[in-house]
Design brief:
The complex is a heterodimer of chains A (146) and B (94). Chain A is of the alpha/beta class and 146 residues long. Chain A is built from five helices and five strands. Chain A is globular and about 40 Å long. Classes of the chains: A alpha/beta (146), B mainly beta (94).
């Protein structure tokens, strides 16, 4: 059962403030992920303070890096149930976890950060992994596979 | 919202994805909930039973590290007396 929307509103706003576009319906997910060109990061948001409380600041830090995905979108696990389920179909080979992040390049998942790679780590350490992935996959004309 | 938690006062591993090894050889990977009444309680658990699996424990863990937890069970309890080791999945090195 979803949490009270008022409780999670700050967590949504935190994503929007850093430049992520919220996807709350299946149609919005398909429009964003269905025919991708370039690089897109999908952040699966979560109410979990242990992990998401560090993952969101980590992504905010990482997005200050000069090399970054062209698009950043987010779905909210446990809140926007259908949108999250649809988004996960686009990276179905990876087990569902939240928070988590999938980096796409031209429609292919080239990097995935699971919840277990977030738990117990500082935002700075998580951001360092993300920026390394951005450097590898988000520079024009470079690597395309994980 | 850094550090914001909805569940203060729980076990230090509460919510952490762990590898739980048992004396019988079965390995469980999932989110640790708590220890109560002599059992460890976990959520969204992948189970590796060496007697029933085609792959060894290390390959099971390698795949889990790369592709995430493929939960076989939504909720599971394991007798505390059977637990030989609990390691956060993020700290596992193979």
């Amino acid at each position: 059962m979803p949490y009270n929307p008022a409780l999670v509103a700050p967590m949504r706003e935190e994503m929007v403030r850093m430049g992520a576009r919220e996807l709350t319906t299946v149609a919005e997910v398909d429009a964003a992920l269905g025919d991708q060109k370039g690089t897109t990061l999908v952040f699966v948001n979560s109410v979990c303070g242990c992990a998401a409380g560090n993952a969101r600041p980590a992504l905010r830090l990482a997005l200050q890096h000069p090399v970054r995905p062209q698009e950043v979108v987010t779905v909210f696990a446990g809140q926007d149930l259908e949108a999250t389920a649809r988004a996960r179909q686009y990276f179905a080979e990876y087990g569902p976890s939240s928070p988590s992040m999938a980096l796409f390049k031209d429609g292919e998942v080239v990097y995935f950060m699971h919840r277990h790679q977030i738990e117990g780590r500082s935002p700075q350490a998580i951001a360092a992994d993300l920026t390394a992935a951005f450097d590898r996959f988000c520079r024009a004309g470079e690597a395309t596979a994980a | 919202m850094a550090g914001h938690v909805f569940h203060p006062g729980h076990h230090e591993l509460h919510g952490v994805t762990v590898v739980l090894e048992t004396s019988g050889g079965t390995t469980y990977v999932g989110r640790f909930h708590d220890v109560e009444g002599g059992v460890v309680r976990m959520h969204d658990v992948a189970v590796h039973d060496p007697a029933a699996s085609d792959v060894g424990r290390d390959d099971f863990l390698r795949r889990t590290l790369k592709f995430g937890v493929r939960a076989d069970r939504k909720f599971l309890t394991i007798p505390e007396g059977e637990v030989t080791r609990i390691t956060p999945l993020g700290e596992v090195r193979l």
